[in-house]
Amino acid sequence: MTSVSIVVPAYNHARFLEQAVESVLTQTHPAVELIVLDDGSTDGTRAVLGKYGNRFRWESQTNMGQAATLNKGWGMTSGDLLGYLSADDYLHPDAVKSAVECLERHADAVLAYPDFVQVDENSRALRTIRTPEFSYEDMVLRGVCAPGPGAFFRRSAYARTGGWNAALRSIPDLEYWLRLGLAGPFRRIAKVLAYYRVHAGAQSFSAVDEARAEEFVAVMDAQLTQPSLPESLRTRGREARANALLLAARLHLLSGRFATGLARATAALHTDPRAALRARSYRLLASGLLWRLRIAAGG
Are residues 152 and 236 in the same domain? Predict the structure, then answer.
């Protein structure tokens, strides 16, 4: 039977952690290993975990960040498939079973990912996200990160590609999917199997410092030098880098650094003037400004 290991990196999400843990413990697939790593939390995370006794393995550590914590956690596991769950998200009971079945059907695939629902702080549904079918080209050229919560990948592929880049704070997941995508295709599971929580403390909706905003550019520059990158994408490197600059500009705008955001958007147009003809370029910049307005308005 295919065994599956899930790591939960927990940092100051005590009020959501029990729901995340229970969603793993109640999976319908019978061979699921759970490890929770308390990454230096200062809230009630340890108390929540302590209630479970020895039902799964957990420990506390000095804060290491998400990527380093996941690498450590996966190194402690033994499953054939690996996954992670943010401490403020949770899984459908059939999430693991569906991923196992998908990867058993598609022996060439290295990762399976589902649709998911955005929920609020009280687990009320906000929006169903129908994830796109996987396209490595879209991931490189447009930064489309298809896998979200509920993604599982093969340990064998993880062993070949290495772990997450612990130097990254904003997009270690996208950087890893870019590398993993060179090892084999991803498969979409066209049903809701995970729940992604939108709340004030969620990293995806928070302002970031300048270094974190620039990660898109650094990651793409590194990806374009990968020897195994298809030549058809290597020849479109200017388009890929321009998109990375626009993604950085979006985060600068969201974070209130308007001059820097404008400078990165201008650099994108210099890198690939055709970016000015793409509606997506303007949507990215507009979304950054709109999120900044929401932050400024306190909601």
Answer: no
